[in-house]
Amino acid sequence: MTEIDINGLEPLATFCGNCNCGCPQLFVDPGAPAERRVLLTDDFGQRVQMSADQFASLVEEAKAGKLDGIAIA
Fold this sequence. Notes:
Blueprint: E1 10-14, E2 25-28, E3 38-41, E4 47-50, H1 52-63
C-alpha cells in the first residue's frame, strides 16, 4: 500500500473505517484548481481528482439508484 500525502486536505468522509487497512477517503483540496478540488483516495495509494460539479453529479446518480448494481454485498 502506498501512502498518500494528505497535508492541507480537508477530510469529508472515510469509507469502511472498520479496519486499519487504509480505507478509501474523500477530501477537499482547497489549494487545487477548481476542476481538481474533490479528491478520492483508495487503499492502494491511488487518487482521483474531480470538480465539485462532477462530484455532485456522481452523488446525484448514486441517490437515484444508478450505482446500486455495483454495491454487491
